[in-house]
Structure formats: structure tokens, C-alpha cells
Design goal:
- It is a single chain.
- The protein is elongated and about 70 Å long.
- It is an all-alpha fold.
- It has helices at about 10-40, 50-70, 85-120, 130-135, 135-170.
- About 75% of the residues lie in helices and about 0% in strands.
- It is built from five helices and no strands.
């Protein structure tokens, strides 16, 4: 099911939810880091979890917001040459690019699942959390990015087909 099969109202809610989670995660990471710094340098008593919790928050924040970056097309790409090509060629390259990104995301997601299972067996010493709390961000984030990448691929396919129609009828 692609992004366009979801009603616009639900898509807006999903975007707002991800944006809100990202904003909350950024604020929480900032507060935790400020607490850690104050405890370490002002009181010389850093919390035992001072490394693990900020790292976990940062990784989750990165992968969750990666989904929004994918949806909004904010990922880095070099388009200098591609923008100077005919529209049909440009859109064909874009379709190929989206397909390659999809394949990469699916491969990363599939290969990250055994890592999550392995990490579930071992706790983090500082917090007692299973290590999978950190590694679970990878398949969750890749699944989100894959979902949004399908929407980008569908849009690129539509643009490619629209760009080819005049040539086919002419």
C-alpha cells in the first residue's frame, strides 16, 4: 500500500505525529544532555546512564526523522547534470534512483532484524535495557523510509509516464 492510498487527513496526522515525536525527541535529548553536563561538571557526579540514554535517543531521533526527510525529499542528491536532460530521461533516472533506494532500504531492514534479535538477549549495563532498544530503531526507521519512498516512486512514475505521452502520440 503506497502513501497515496492513505487518505490525506490520515497522511497529515502521520506527518504531524512523526514531526511531534521528532520535536519531543530533540527536546528530550537536549534536556538529558544538559542534565548530564551539569551533573558531570558542576557536581562531579555523572549519572551512570549518561552515555547510553542520549545515544539511544539520538539514534531513534535520526531514524524516525529520516522517514520525514524521505517524504519531504530532503535527502541529499546531486542533480546538476540530471536537471539539464529531457524530462522523460530525467524522470526515468528518478524512477531508477527511487527503485535503488527502495532496494537498499529493504535490504537494510531485512538484515537489521537478526541484529535486533541478537541484541534482545543482552542488557545494557548502565540502564538494564536490552540492547535491542537501540538497534530496533534501524528496522523501524527503514520501514518508515520505505513507506515514504514508495510514495516518491509512485509520483516519479506518474511524472515519467506523463512526460512520455506526448512523444508516444506524436
Amino acid at each position: 500500500m503506497s502513501d497515496s492510498n492513505v487518505p490525506a487527513r490520515a497522511r497529515g496526522r502521520i506527518d504531524r505525529l512523526l514531526f511531534g515525536v521528532g520535536a519531543l525527541g530533540l527536546m528530550l535529548t537536549t534536556v538529558v544532555m544538559m542534565y548530564v553536563v551539569v551533573m558531570r561538571y558542576a557536581f562531579n557526579k555523572p549519572p551512570i546512564w549518561s552515555e547510553e540514554v542520549p545515544k539511544t535517543l539520538f539514534v531513534w531521533l535520526t531514524f524516525l526523522c529520516g522517514g520525514l526527510a524521505t517524504k519531504w525529499g530532503l535527502n541529499v542528491r546531486v542533480s546538476f547534470v540530471v536537471e539539464r536532460l529531457r524530462p522523460s530521461v530525467r524522470y526515468a533516472i528518478e524512477v531508477a534512483m527511487h527503485l535503488l533506494v527502495l532496494v537498499m532500504l529493504i535490504v537494510v531492514c531485512i538484515y537489521s532484524l537478526p541484529m535486533v534479535q541478537l541484541h534482545a538477549q543482552f542488557p545494557v549495563l548502565a540502564t538494564g535495557w536490552p540492547r535491542s532498544v537501540l538497534s530496533l530503531a534501524i528496522p523501524v526507521g527503514c520501514a518508515l523510509m520505505t513507506w515514504f519512498q514508495f510514495g516518491l516512486l509512485r509520483r516519479a512514475l506518474r511524472m515519467y509516464l506523463d512526460a512520455r505521452e506526448p512523444a508516444a502520440s506524436g
